[in-house]
Amino acid sequence: SHLGRPKGKDPNLKMDNVAKKLEALLGKPVKKLDDCIGEHVKNELAKMNEGDVCLLENVRFYAEEEKNDPEFSKKLAELADLYVNDAFGTAHRAHSSTAGVAQYLPAVAGFLIEKEVAVMGKALTNPERPFVAILGGAKVSDKIGVIENLLGRVDALLIGGAMAFTFLLAKGYKTGKSLVEEDKVTLAKEIMEKASARGVKLYLPKDVVVADKTDDTAGVVKTVKAEEIPDELIGVDIGPETVKEFSAVIKGAKTVIWNGPMGIFETKKFSEGTKKIAEALAEVKGVTIVGGGDSASAVQKMGYANKITHISTGGGASLEFLEGRELPGIAVLQNK
Questions:
Q1: How far is CA 65 from CA 12, 74, 128, in A?
Q2: How far is the first Cα of the chain from the last one, in angstroms, to the nearest whole number?
Q3: Fewer CB within 10 Å, N- or C-terminus of the chain?
Q4: 31, 36, 30: which is closest to 13 by C-alpha?
């Protein structure tokens, strides 16, 4: 496995603590080796008996790992008879340990990757309807591919988070000091037109919570209509009317995908919108999928994780999957 983003061999990013955690989870000893390739590693692995577990050192201690270097991939492959990838969170990266090694060994998916691909794949290709997508987070630019792909599949698209302000600006509303991507306003208009042409209902906030600062030190915090954001204030969350409308759409759905928080949920004052959307999702009588990253943390933090069908373990990977892109770490596996 890899750990962190080391520049060369970093003693703070060795896999020792991972080995201890793995021992606790497996309930059996885990032998941690100080390298991931080479003769010493081969010799140690040759001593293993059936049922033994060895953990190799951080593969990113070698720059060749992220370059997907064929020689490095070969050296990793020499250590095994079979390659199982169960790290969906890294499946969007074409690195030696996620893609390269599969060129030299029989390569298959683990149970987690199987579940990720099966649940999200069905939602995209053959969803129970109505199919609703909720997108949030900071930037439209991060989600363009997802929006484009989902517009041809969903019945309704709900947009919250800071990315909603670029859409509100595209509608001619003033957005105060809210985070907007002015260079994406034309794109936001095109997305709204496409949604309309395809019969997809696109929902934007009707009201928003605004504040003078984006953290706990905010002195001014109030709710205003989406078209009445004061010049000097910043949009930080969706308002109660929006929560009511979004929640009704969500609860009427049979398949829901959520990626990205509705506001600055890390700050308690601005977490209500995200919390209420998580609550609505937990009440859906159908398939609910939360893309990794911030929305997954929000659902877990708010205690609704056990009421969601599937919480993806990949942030970037689930985004790319929702964009309809082929993930290199999955493309190389034999039981796709």
A1: 19, 11, 40
A2: 21
A3: C
A4: 36
Global pTM value: 0.88
In Å, how far are 26, 168, 195, 236 from 228, measured between CA atoms? 56, 11, 25, 14
Q: Which domains does the chain have, with CATH numbers?
A: 11-109 (3.40.50.1260), 115-322 (3.40.50.1260)
Full DSSP string of 278-291: HHHHHT-SSEEEE-
CB atoms within 10 A of CB 171: 13
Q: What is the DSSP string of 143-179?
A: HHHHHHHHHTT-SEEEE-STHHHHHHHHTT---TT--
pLDDT digit string, tens, across residues 94-132? 999 999 999 999 999 999 999 999 998 999 889 999 999
- Closest by Cα among 265, 258, 199 to 236: 265
Q: How far apart are CA 203 and CA 156, in angstroms?
A: 8
**Kind and range of the H or E run holding 21:** helix 16-26
> Which residues lie closer than 8 Å to 134 by C-beta, 6 or more apart?
158, 160, 246, 250, 256, 257, 258, 259, 260, 277, 281
Peptide bond preceding 130 in cis form (omega within 30 of 0): yes
